[in-house]
Write a structure and sequence with these properties.
mainly alpha, 3-stranded antiparallel sheet, 11 helices
Length: 237
Amino acid sequence: ISFMNKSDGSGIKHRIKNKASSINSESLASSVYEELKRRLNAGMLKPGQFIDLTALGNELGISRTPLRDALIRLELEGFIVIYQRRGVMVKVLQLSDIRDIYQIIGALEASAIEEISKRFRASDADKMDSLCVEMADALSADDFDRYYRANLEFHDIYLELSENKKLIDNVHILKERLYDFPRRSSYIKEWELDSMAEHAEIVKQLRSADFKGAASYVKDVHWSFEVQERYIRKYYV
C-alpha cells in the first residue's frame, strides 16, 4: 500500500530530512507524528487500512526509529493499532469508542470548570458570547469549518484557565479522535443548532458563577452520549 501524495510528497520528505540534520531523534519523531496526523485528517490514511511502513519510511526519508516512536504515540492516543506480525492498522472509530470518549471529555471539562471558579472573569464570558455569535454566523453561511474552529475556541476559553496542562492536552487529543479521523466534509445542522443552545446555557451559568451547575451541565448534557446519541448515530453510523 502506498500513501504517496504526488503533489507534495517530495516536499514533505525534503522538510523532514532537513529537520533530521539539525534536531534530535525525539523532535524528529514529533515531526513524523504531526505528518501522520495530517494524513489521518486528510483521509490519506483511512480507518481499517494497514500502513506500509517500508514505503512510508522511504517516502519520508527516515529510519525505522522515529517512525516507530511516532506510531507508538499514535497508538497510545487511540489513532492506530499495532499488531505483532500483522503490522499497523489505522483504528476504526466504533460507537463504543465514541461513548467512552464522550464520558471522558465530559468528566475532564467538568473538572476544569470546577477548578477555575477563582480565575474565570466576566471578560471570559464575553469572549464565549462573541464566539457563540461567530458560530451562529458560520451556521447561517453553512461554513462548518469556521463553526468548528469557533466551537473549539469556545471550550478552550475555560479549559485554558485550568492549571492542569495534561487535562487540556488529553481533551484536545480526544476531540481530534472524534472530529479529525478524517475530518468530515458534511455536518448535521440540527445538531449544531441544539449545541448552540447548550453553549448559551453554559455561558449563562458561568457568568452567574454557578460553576458546579455549569460543570454538571457540560458533563450530563453537552457531553452526554445518551443525550446526544440520536445525532451521534446519524453522524457516525
